[in-house]
Amino acid sequence: xxxxxxxxxxxxxxxxxxxxxxxxxxxxxxxxxxxxxxxxxxxxxxxxxxxxxxxxxxxxxxxxxxxxxxxxxxxxxxxxxxxxxxxxxxxxxxxxxxxxxxxxxxxxxxxxxxxxxxxxxxxxxxxxxxxxxxxxxxxxxxxxxxxxxxxxxxxxxxxxxxxxxxxxxxxxxxxxxxxxxxxxxxxxxxxxxxxxxxxxxxxxxxxxxxxxxxxxxxxxxxxxxxxxxxxxxxxxxxxxxxxxxxxxxxxxxxxxxxxxxxxxxxxxxxxxxxxxxxxxxxxxxxxxxxxxxxxxxxxxxxxxxxxxxxxxxxxxxxxxxxxxxxxxxxxxxxxxxxxxxxxxxxxxxxxxxxxxxxxxxxxxxxxxxxxxxxxxxxxxxxxxxxxxxxxxxxxxxxxxxxxxxxxxxxxxxxxxxxxxxxxxxxxxxxxxxxxxxxxxxxxxxxxxxxxxxxxxxxxxxxxxxxxxxxxxxxxxxxxxxxxxxxxxxxxxxxxxxxxxxxxxxxxxxxxxxxxxxxxxxxxxxxxxxxxxxxxxxxxxxxxxxxxxxxxxxxxxxxxxxxxxxxxxxxxxxxxxxxxxxxxxxxxxxxxxxxxxxxxxxxxxxxxxxxxxxxxxxxxxxxxxxxxxxxxxxxxxxxx
Length: 639
Known about the structure:
Blueprint: H1 15-23, E1 35-37, E2 48-50, H2 54-63, E3 88-92, E4 103-106, E5 116-119, E6 134-136, E7 140-145, E8 148-153, E9 161-167, E10 172-178, E11 181-188, E12 193-196, E13 200-203, E14 207-214, E15 222-230, E16 232-239, E17 242-250, E18 253-254, E19 257-258, E20 262-265, E21 268-271, E22 278-280, E23 287-296, E24 304-312, E25 314-319, E26 323-329, E27 334-343, E28 346-356, E29 365-368, E30 371-379, E31 382-392, E32 398-405, E33 410-417, E34 420-426, E35 429-436, E36 444-452, E37 454-462, E38 465-475, E39 482-493, E40 501-508, E41 525-527, E42 532-541, E43 559-571, E44 574-581, H3 588-591, E45 605-609, E46 612-616, E47 620-625, E48 631-636
Parallel strand pairs: 1-24
Antiparallel strand pairs: 2-22, 3-9, 4-5, 6-7, 7-8, 8-9, 10-11, 11-14, 12-13, 14-15, 15-20, 16-17, 17-23, 18-19, 20-21, 23-24, 25-26, 26-27, 27-28, 29-30, 30-31, 31-32, 33-34, 34-35, 35-36, 37-38, 38-39, 39-40, 41-42, 42-43, 43-44, 45-46, 46-47, 47-48
């Protein structure tokens, strides 16, 4: 089982006071602090404990052997103050006029009363926004490129131009847009030493930095908040005005001192005290502090709300509008689940539980009608034990299950849709399982479809049709393995759950072809109302004339010939390639690529505003007509 919750009280004090407090066994200092805890301990249950003192936490870490020291390594975090990495406005340019994606209607033309139709980030749960490197509000596009945030006026297409470029001084990991606030996560990694008179020579340590910019004037973004947190940024969600995010810190002892996470805003520091940390009684493996924080991004005076858990290293999260589920993997590849309530900025531990097997990604989980559903592969490090689906009640007790599906295979994709779940497993062929969950205590496999290839991402076209994105495969003559081929797009009819069918499929390229959308659902653009599907694809082709018998071996890789956005017409009738948009004009880039292809002009994301398609690479933003794919505009974004 998993879990621990967080906090009754937090200590806020300077680092030196923290060390003294640690020596005194967890004596609390509370001077107001950068952040506050919110757990209602009267509602907690499950196998968990709370440390009563600094010494108890230290003894626990020693007993679990989480006390190695790593001077200068990834686990060493020695904090120095007086360290401010200022955002720099690089350039400002004159502003003109002063479902894969979610389809959105917004008052983007301010003051005009005109609404624009544009695509949002492709998210798993409606109303729960996910961070990405590209966002749009229907008028502007916001693009995180390296350490820069580039704001482009995108609509109308005749006025496309860069309006500002902001250097964040650190690599940008994720961004959100919330009204006139731009939310930015950046990372600082320990790549140098510093000298501090008070603390001596140290390492600056891993830090996650949350910056909020006021972009009322898009030409001059203004920093309104910066919060520095020890550790690494793990994941986040934006629900309404409340941002929820998770920061991880390794739990260890250095030089006989337990290093605990600290948070800084301006000159004010807060450090989590030992007796504010909760932990389950069966934590094993390499443990880490997982601090879940929330912030009202529209309130510049709002304090950060936090809860901290000492858990096995987290692997992924699933977030509904009211709950976050954090998954950690135990020694024997069981999945340990921590359920945390998140409503109106409050964070409250609710339950913990364990299921056999490991989770592929966030789409292996779902919350529906008060139940949590989760799909896992294998147990005890043995995939031959098959694949499983578990249904858990609100307290994370298992109430129903289907186990041992497709023994010898593993889950490649899954999608929960209401009372059903669809699983794709693979070894040689691709079984698509349809599973009924309408009776939570008695889940039932109703049908299966076996076809060559596999899907790594499933997306609902509607309630009876699924879109699958993956790879075509060819079975080896031995019958023991299958060779991956081109990128495959499939339409699956699941209206008769006992007899799923492949309505249509389209293969792009030969072995070696690839797409970001296979691994990152944010690269998937879909609009049912527009019959539109757009994927970034790197296409490889095999020239059969290169072989004496006119046939290439199954394991032969093709030569790279094209990279760009592939635009498809998609409907219940099938899938048809409408056309392609590339940012790479020189074919020599493909001829000199060899085994690997890399270019600053590889299309990574696409979106639409009204009847225009926008594609982004590191070096360019291009605008094309959605109907004809005629190029309307293109701007360079720099190297």
